[in-house]
Amino acid sequence: LANILGMSDIVDSGYRVTFDSNHGNFFAVHLSDSEVMVFKRLTNGLYGFDTAVDKLTVIQPTHTSFFSTV
Fold it and tell me: Which residue would you say has higher pLDDT here, 65 or 53?
């Protein structure tokens, strides 16, 4: 079963969506700070997530600390 990305529905649901055509040519739907669904370009030109093949991508969150000294 493949899911085809309806970006407006995803964005309206509050998820962050990113796309970079220079690095992989895919849409990334950020489910949380550590889980991303990657929608790859299919041969028909649409972007999809094949649930039989693709798995959620787990990313390592980065932590940034800001401090000042006097």
Answer: 53
